[in-house]
Write a structure and sequence with these properties.
By secondary structure, the chain is of the alpha/beta class. The chain has helices at about 25, 30-35, 50-60, 70-80, 100-110, 135-140, 150-160, 170-175, 180-185, 220-225, 235-255, 265-280, 300-315, 320-335, 340-350, 360-369, and strands at about 85-90, 115-120, 130, 145-150, 160-165, 185-190, 195, 205-210, 225-230. The protein is built from 16 helices and nine strands. The strands form three sheets. Strands 2-5-8-1-9 form a five-stranded parallel β-sheet. A two-stranded antiparallel ribbon has the order 3-4. A two-stranded antiparallel sheet has the order 6-7. It is globular and about 70 Å long. The N and C termini lie far apart (about 60 Å).
């Protein structure tokens, strides 16, 4: 059985009215350009060749903007995995762009990044397999019409890439519902004595991290079905500053924030604070500092700066200053009221206070601490 009709939601309004367009909509021109010029072999069901998918992700320095800043080989391995019958597991600490990369991979390969299962402690097996329209089920009994396909089932029937976010947050028995899908490329429907067989182009991208609370380890049987690619934190401060600056600019434009001078100085300062507290040592290697309980990821740095820009634009003079980011930094660092506050105050007094050119930042952070 491969005749499931895709269930789609009508687009409401134009892309300009959508707060966050899907990747295939936001970057439609780039995807069209690459598809038009792409003369390399494409795996069955793919919109682009693996080479063009990688170019879309990393950019070409001219017409295609980079979506992910990192080692090219990491992206190449991820793309090559999806060109085989192996599923892809993107593993990394929070804030390493796992979700971001999975969305863009699905958009470039299938032209659709919306076939998504969000893993939580309450995710039921129906989210991975299928559910039922119970009104029709009670009235008519088990039938194709009464069946509600999951994103995974739809991806199999349509030959597309599906995404499972936060795989390790799902209960173990729900995780294991994927074993047959990934090994046999088949999803049985015992109630109808039928099955859905995956069409060419189907694959699955999962993301996971082992830092957050509520993690359920993958069974060895399920882990064997994945090729795991570890996404590292940015290797250098310059690389992380570049990532943060790009994303803050993109978010500022998408949110239509009033024009604000986003100085690299404040971006670099936030990134430096996060990197030093994350690693437990200052960037010159001379001073050891206590690391707080939070992850202090790149994504959190982007959030702090975006909030700071909103403050500067609406309540300041339009120039991003230390006072605009201080509260956001303290909120990101101090997750545990006692231990994190001690670590933050110690860092503030022993590192920030003594750093040349950081006096305004020190006073702003001290005022909100």
């Amino acid at each position: 059985m491969n005749d499931l009709s895709p269930v789609s939601s009508p687009r409401q309004g134009s892309d300009a009215e959508v707060l966050r367009p899907h990747a295939e909509e936001q970057y439609a021109e780039e995807l069209h350009l690459l598809a038009k010029e792409d003369d390399r072999p494409r795996p069955p069901g793919w919109k682009l060749s693996p080479w063009a998918v990688t170019t879309y992700i990393l950019g070409d320095g001219d017409r295609v903007t980079p979506k992910y800043v990192g080692a090219r080989r990491v992206v190449e391995v991820a793309v090559a995995t999806l060109a085989t019958d192996r599923a892809l597991l993107l593993l990394g600490v929070p804030g390493t762009a796992k979700t971001w990369l999975s969305e863009h991979l699905a958009a470039a390969i299938s032209g659709d990044s919306t076939l998504l299962v969000q893993g939580t402690a309450g995710t039921a097996e129906e989210a991975v397999r299928y559910g039922w329209n119970y009104a029709r089920l009670l009235a008519e009994g088990p039938s194709i019409e009464a069946l509600t396909p999951s994103p995974v089932m739809r991806a199999m029937a349509e030959g597309r890439v599906t995404r499972v976010e936060e795989l390790t947050r799902m209960p173990s028995d729900v995780q294991d519902a994927l074993i047959t899908v990934l090994s046999e490329k088949t999803l049985p429907i015992p109630e109808l004595s039928r099955e859905v067989q995956a069409r060419r182009g189907f694959n699955l991208i999962a993301t996971a991290n082992d830092r957050d609370k509520g993690v359920n380890d993958l069974s060895s049987a399920l882990r064997r079905r994945f090729n795991t690619v570890v996404l590292p934190v940015p290797a250098t401060a310059e690389e992380e500053v570049d990532i943060v600056a790009r994303r803050v600019d993109q978010l500022g434009r998408s949110l239509e924030l009033p024009g604000t001078a986003t100085g690299l100085e404040e971006i670099r300062r936030v990134v430096t604070v996060f990197r030093e507290l994350r690693s437990g040592v200052t960037e010159d290697g001379r001073t050891r500092v206590k690391s707080p309980s939070g992850t202090l990821s790149t994504a959190e740095a982007i959030s702090v700066l975006t909030s700071g820009i909103a403050l500067a634009a609406h309540f300041g003079d339009g120039v991003l200053r230390p006072a605009d980011v201080a509260a956001g930094i303290v909120g990101a660092v101090v997750q545990e009221p006692v231990s994190d506050r001690v670590a933050w105050r110690e860092y503030l007094e022993t590192v920030v206070r003594e750093r040349p050119g950081w006096q305004d930042f020190y006073r702003a952070c001290r005022d909100v601490s």
